[in-house]
Specification:
Distance between the termini: 107 Å
Number of helices: 43
Helix content: 25-40%
């Protein structure tokens, strides 16, 4: 960076000897010269960058930098100038390359004006293909109306916007046509991204020192060096030199002193800027060019449309836009690691010593971004991730730099991360801190810092330019006075290449041995370039330090002469990119709003900063983001509205222009994120909505459309001022746009024009509201014939009436133009009918449809159609009659029998309608829903009935000893697992004390399931009747006389039936099955059967299982006691918590587990003695989080197929196979538990934890040298990672092999084969709320066909949908139903055939 009027350096600088400067063309050896624009041109924009210069006494003979031959680009040329622009000394500035990538700048007598920017240039390494091939460029428009324009068509100065795209931002097909580049940023944010905004970048100008060499020594010899140095030698000749009594290095001949070229190239690149805070460099290149920058081969992104960009040179500066600006400022797009530094016009190549350092540190990476204490070594470790500081020899790529491209002009910026300096910045910071806190007695801390660094600089200059090769004893008085000595200084000199050696002799000492810098050897060249780089960096550091602490350094009367000058580059690159305060004003945002986080988030999303806020820039940023990233329009408008709203409501002078723009955008249909969140609720979604279903992306479009039409009809029925209708339409449009649904959006578009209401519709047609559809069509036809110019308005009127009435006849008339007559929905006569909702009763509808598919159950219920409670009164049941029958393991009351008969009568009537109805769906009665959802006990609690009717109830009715399904059952979806789950038949279970004779009523296994067995006298229902078999000593006295404790009081609100509350399918099933079995009881004594399964419910759903417990006979005893008990079950539970398991895995976990008995862990094995024809398996997705105290729904996918073989779980299964299976299951469980522990356990995953630990400790090992962190520890961490990786691979392989081995054992056992018939689905993210629907297989007619029962809609789906992997979806199987192969229990479709009457 040139110095204005000689400014930019401190008084420490001495004017150089006047030496003619050389042009960059001479420096690079090129012959082509091209004149730049005049430096005095005031309107020239910041098109390029330049940084350093040099003095030399002779032209360089050879340069390691090559000058690429640019490809001429006529559109990129600036006309040749008549005269050169001269500096203050009258000498012209000579260029041969564009200043944006110029050679190093020299510090001559005439300063280089800081804003003299050159012309653009071509680049031979780029491709000029269009951004998106085969798509014709759209015709762009420019919105240029004034900022204060108060018209309704307000806009801002911004180019390339299109109404079509902005109105269809949600449409992916439209977006693909325009192929926008995505989110962008404005210049102020770019300025902050180029480098830390609180750090200053300096351009560095270097002059070769005019230093005289030291005469070669003649007689004096340095003391000999001890053979063993405290640190390992790094040079190739360390072994021999350490044992020599001669000086470590011979004096450097004059011919080997650094050339001017070496001094110049000590700066990493012509466009490199020095940062003191990092003691490193940042590469910045900016330019306007009609060709793209040199992209790397690995870059896979797509730049903005090049044909559009090259038409405008720059978005800023009137001189570059003769027809006026088309944009307020630049709009940059970020492409990280996109540019190959080797392919720049002036290639950037890391030096040999840098590559060597990188290779040493590449295996240890640390990321400490933004940390002031980040060391240079840490930055270098980070470099391979940030700017790809390593070259790939195969790909031929160099460092990968970030690219920032303006989408509206040919301007772009290339930037690197921090290129580390020689001395780690952490060492410099430690040195400064130590000197400031512990200065010498006669010096201030600031002066001590300066003297120390000047001394280090002198040592470097003596070695490089004066040929000083003598060793430097660190204990000498002069050294100690100026430097002192500690570990920080030792490491600083080590980083410079000096070695610490022990001197032997009369006065043993420790000395610094300078590095070999002979340029004729590889090691010498490396050390030489490294010292030169460090010399430039320390000089720049001292120059900046001297400026900042000038008042404290006045006592320093003899400063070290610096050969480096620095200038701040902030204004230069700010002007270039359009971020300078002269270009974008600061401080317009009210201080009241500055501290709000919402402002920061909104501004960042729009690509600008709050310090650069202005109404104009805010609006431009919003329009630019919406233009370039239309898919996120809602988010950008949310941010824009947030800022505007806060400005308008919290400041004293709100911007009228912002209010106008917000109003205009609202008129164009823009909405915020909050608006979209409210939209589903307006249409009836949500837990408190009319639909009672949560909205998510899985909801079909048809469902959303129907919800919208329902909302419109509700708005019409409720009347009002039309606001409800407007809200419903807006909500529907917002949902349609966010879903990207063109079909839904077209539905909205067709309905949006007009604002017709039912009242206006009848008025338009001049008909009364009571007119029927047929007469309405007739009148409409007459009105159209009389007034053809009003046809559109009349059609809209008929359309509104059609929607209000839900008239398919009117809709078809509007579509076809002819009256279809009375419309009957096209529903096949032989297809099942749907059930309309009565509220949130989708769970009940699924269950009732399921019951209807079971032939035996349907036939058993049919005779009870129109039955009443009179039959029961006529029976005159005695107490003895009631005591003979148990349902659910307990006696029932007369009231329950009467209630159950009412329920079954209502159910029989519903079944009749499902069989005979011609319409697509029927509606259950409210009485049926109430009886199904509310148990008799709940009714008693709700009316606060504290005692039972003594005339109807007996003491026996208080016994509740029925088991819930098949043992382990989790709690209710809305309860804690500690709470007792509802029983199978709808009654709340009570805990009993353990101790009855093997009726172990409450055993908690490892998953906190509760297994409740029944009393041995449960009766013929089969829910009791536990046939105990005592294998060994286990008998305990029965407690037959003990009564269970009373039920705790329950709030009425917990049991009252509310259709707005979701119910679990299994809970509803319990209540329904209980009432069916109760209603079908026979008291004539003719229904007794030998197997106890007289009830159709027991015959269909109930089987028998055997539990075996193996426990020690006494504490400390090795003798084992085995206990067996038999229980009935209706549903088998499968816990669903982890991914990667199938149905067999879940069942195996249930049949083979452990339980807690008397504080002991006992082995529990369950086998199936008798299987029911209909096998119901519940996937228990409700899990309990003990930390949060909340229940949650597991969305894990459980794989299942069309069939399942239960042979392996039978009590009669092959004993040998069972033993082998048990052994494999035990090992498989251990294997899976270990995988879970290592990958998803509490502290997992351990692989990444080890990797992160290695990275952190590895970095500390190189910077802090803690004794606890040694190479062995790092090696152990690496070994542990490898071991863990191998272990996981082995575990997964073994688990897969064991799983296959297990399946192979049972592959030939296919006696108990069941086929899938029904699947219950719950869609929702929580167990408390969601939507149920139900799949049923079309049996027996078409087993490959499945019906989907979704309330009133019944559709046909493929089996692939039923068996689909639901990973990532909230719609998961909740219960599976299988039927025994060969049975005829299922008859999915039962429809009345009118032809059967004719046949009769």
């Amino acid at each position: 960076m040139a110095n204005k009027d000689g400014a930019g350096s401190s008084d420490l600088h001495t004017d150089p000897v006047p030496i003619p400067s050389i042009s960059p063309s001479t420096f690079y050896g090129g012959q082509n010269q091209r004149q730049p624009p005049l430096p005095s041109r005031p309107a020239a924009p910041a098109l390029g960058s330049a940084s350093t210069g040099h003095y030399t006494t002779q032209p360089p003979e050879k340069t390691p930098f090559r000058e690429p031959e640019p490809v001429p680009d006529e559109s990129d040329q600036i006309p040749a100038l008549e005269d050169y622009s001269a500096g203050q000394d009258g000498r012209p500035f000579v260029y041969d390359t564009p200043p944006q990538e110029s050679g190093w700048r020299s510090v001559d007598a005439g300063p280089w004006p800081s804003h003299n920017y050159g012309s653009t240039s071509s680049n031979p390494y780029v491709q000029t293909d269009r951004w998106i091939a085969n798509i014709p460029p759209p015709t762009w428009g420019t919105f240029e109306s004034g900022w204060n324009n108060a018209s309704t068509q307000r806009s801002i100065t911004i180019n390339e916007r299109t109404d079509l795209e902005e109105m269809h931002w949600w449409n992916s097909q439209v977006r693909s046509t325009y192929a926008r580049p995505g989110r962008g940023i404005l210049p102020p944010i770019l300025a902050d991204r180029l480098h830390h905004p609180e750090h200053t970048l300096f351009s560095v100008a270097v002059t070769p020192p005019n230093l005289r060499p030291v005469p070669p020594p003649t007689t004096a010899q340095p003391p000999p060096v001890h053979p063993e140095s405290p640190r390992k030698r790094r040079s190739t000749d360390s072994a021999s030199s350490s044992q020599s009594s001669q000086p470590s290095h011979a004096p450097t001949p004059w011919t080997l002193f650094p050339t001017a070229e070496e001094v110049r190239t000590a700066v990493p690149h012509p466009n490199a800027y020095y940062c003191r805070k990092h003691n490193g460099w940042v590469l910045l290149v900016w330019k306007s060019s009609s060709v793209n920058p040199p992209l790397s081969r690995s870059f896979k992104g797509t730049l903005p449309d090049h044909s559009r960009r090259r038409s405008t040179n720059t978005c800023i500066g009137d001189a570059e836009q003769p027809f006026g600006p088309s944009n307020v400022t630049h709009h940059f797009h970020v492409y990280e690691r996109a540019v190959d530094a080797r392919r720049l016009t002036h290639p950037f190549n890391a030096s040999e010593w840098e590559n060597e350092e990188r290779s040493k540190l590449r295996h240890r990476k640390m990321t400490l971004r933004g940390d002031e204490s980040t060391t240079a070594a840490t930055i270098l470790e980070q470099a391979p991730d940030d700017i790809q500081m390593a070259v790939d020899p195969e790909e031929g790529e160099g460092d990968l730099l970030d690219l920032y491209v303006c989408c509206q002009c040919s301007f772009y910026v290339i930037a690197s991360g921090v290129i580390p300096g020689v001395v780690p910045v952490k060492l410099l910071e430690d040195l400064v801190k130590n000197k400031v806190e512990n200065p010498p007695p006669d010096k201030t801390g600031e002066l001590a810092v300066l003297i120390t660094l000047e001394t280090i600089l002198t040592i470097i200059e003596n070695r490089v330019w004066k040929g000083e090769s003598r060793q430097l004893p660190v204990s000498r008085k002069t050294f100690q006075t100026r430097l002192g000595w500690n570990s920080t200084l030792s490491r600083i000199f080590e980083s410079l290449g000096f070695e610490l050696r022990n001197l032997v002799g009369p006065a043993p000492d420790t000395a610094l041995s300078p590095p070999e810098i002979d340029p004729t050897t590889p090691a010498g060249r490396l050390a030489r370039s490294k010292l030169l780089r460090a010399w430039v960096e320390l000089s720049a550091w001292i120059a900046d330090y001297s400026k900042r602490f000038a008042p404290a350094l006045k006592a320093h009367t003899n400063p070290h002469k610096l050969w480096v000058k620095i200038d701040s580059a902030r204004e230069e690159y700010q002007h270039a990119i359009g971020a300078h305060p002269d270009q974008i004003a600061r401080g317009q945002l009210s201080s009241i709003l500055s501290d709000f986080d919402k402002i920061d988030e909104a501004m960042t999303n729009l690509g600008l900063t709050k310090t650069t806020y202005s109404p104009e820039l805010l609006t431009f940023a919003y329009f630019a983001q919406a233009r370039c990233d239309p898919a996120q329009t809602m988010g950008y408008f949310t941010s824009f509205y947030t800022v505007c709203n806060m400005v308008m409501t919290m400041t004293e002078e709100p911007s009228q222009a912002l209010q106008s723009f917000v109003f205009d955008e609202r008129e164009r249909g823009r909405f915020t994120h909050e608006d979209f969140q409210e939209a589903p609720g307006i249409l009836g979604f949500g837990v408190h909505g009319t639909l009672g279903v949560d909205y998510d992306d899985d909801v079909p479009d048809e469902f959303v459309e129907n919800a919208w039409r329902d909302a419109i009809r509700r708005a019409w029925r409720e009347g009002g001022n039309g606001q409800r209708l407007s809200n419903a339409n807006d909500a529907f449009r917002r949902i349609a746009e966010m879903r990207g649904s063109e079909a839904l959006w077209k539905r909205w578009a067709q309905a949006k024009d007009g604002g017709m209401t039912p009242e206006r519709a009848y008025s338009t047609l001049e008909v009364p509201a009571e007119i029927d559809d047929g007469m309405l069509i007739t009148v409409f036809s007459m009105r159209v014939e009389d007034q053809p110019n009003q046809v559109d308005r009349m059609r809209e009127a008929v359309s509104v009436i059609a929607e209000m009435r839900d008239s398919d006849r009117l809709r078809r008339f509007l579509e076809t133009g002819s009256d279809p007559g009375e419309v009957v929905l096209a529903t096949r006569q032989d297809w099942p009918r749907g059930l309309n909702q009565l509220g949130n009763t989708c769970y009940l509808n699924s269950l009732l449809q399921y019951f209807y598919t079971i032939k035996d159950l349907r036939e058993a219920i049919a005779p009870l159609l129109h039955s009443s409670g009179k039959a029961m009164d006529e029976d005159k049941l005695t107490d003895d009659d009631l005591k003979r029958h148990r349902v659910g393991g307990r006696l029932v009351t007369r009231k329950e029998i009467l209630r159950s008969k009412k329920f079954v009568s209502e159910l029989a009537e519903l079944f009749w309608h499902l069989e005979h109805a011609d319409i697509a769906s029927v509606t259950p009665t409210m009485e049926l829903a109430k009886l199904a959802l509310v148990t008799s006990k709940d009714e008693e609690d709700d009316i606060e009935q504290t005692a039972t009717d003594s005339s109807n109830d007996t003491d026996a009715t208080l016994v509740e000893d029925a088991p819930p399904r098949a043992g382990p059952v989790t709690g209710s979806p809305v309860g804690s697992p500690e709470a007792s789950a509802s029983s199978v038949l709808g009654k709340r279970s009570r805990e009993k004390e353990i101790g009855s004779r093997m009726s172990i009523d409450s055993i908690t296994d490892k998953d906190n399931y509760v297994i409740i067995s029944t009393s041995p006298d449960a009766g013929p229902s089969g829910l009791g009747g536990a046939a105990e078999v005592e294998m060994k000593d286990a008998e305990a006295p029965a407690q037959s006389g003990a009564k269970p404790p009373p039920l705790p009081p329950r709030k009425a609100s917990e049991s009252v039936m509310m259709f707005g509350r979701q119910h679990d399918v299994s809970e509803c099933m319990d209540n329904c099955v209980f009432q069916i079995e109760t209603a079908l009881l026979k008291f004539d004594g003719l229904d007794e059967s030998e197997d106890g399964k007289s009830s159709v419910v027991k015959r269909l759903f109930y089987g028998t299982l055997r539990q075996r417990l193996v426990a020690p006979t006494s504490e400390g005893s090795r003798a084992l006691s085995t206990h067996e008990s038999e229980n009935v079950f209706s549903i088998l539970p499968v816990s669903v918590s982890d991914e990667g398991y199938d149905l067999y895995d879940g069942l195996s976990s249930y049949f083979h587990s452990t339980a807690q008995l008397d504080s002991n862990t006992v082995s529990m094995e369950i086998t199936l003695v008798d299987l029911p024809p209909v096998l119901q398996i519940q996937l228990q997705r409700v899990q309990w989080d003990r930390e949060t105290g909340q229940s949650w729904k597991s969305q894990a996918y459980v794989k299942f197929g069309e069939t399942i073989c239960m042979d392996r779980f039978l009590d009669s299964a092959n004993p040998d196979k069972r033993v082998r299976s048990k052994t494999i299951l035990s090992e498989l469980s251990k294997c899976r538990d270990r995988i879970h522990l290592l990958t998803t356990g509490q502290h997992a995953p351990f692989m990444s934890a080890l990797s992160n630990t290695y990275d952190i400790l590895g970095g500390l090992h190189d910077t802090i040298h803690l004794p606890e962190i040694d190479d062995q520890l790092l090696s152990d961490l690496t070994t542990e990672q490898d071991y863990l990786k191998d272990e996981l691979e082995t575990l997964r392989t073994n688990a897969a092999n064991m799983k296959q081995e297990l399946e192979d054992i049972w592959k030939d056992e296919q006696e108990a084969v069941y086929e899938l018939t029904s699947v219950f689905i719950h869609r929702g993210s929580t167990p408390q709320w969601g939507h149920y629907f139900f799949y049923s297989r079309h049996l027996p007619e078409n087993p490959d066909l499945w019906f989907k029962y979704n309330d009133s809609e019944v559709s046909v789906v493929s089996k692939d949908e039923v068996l689909a992997d639901t990973t990532g979806s909230t719609a998961n199987p909740y219960m599976l139903v299988f039927v025994r192969r060969g049975s005829d229990m299922i008859s999915t479709v039962k429809r009345f055939d009118p032809m059967s009457l004719e046949d009769d």
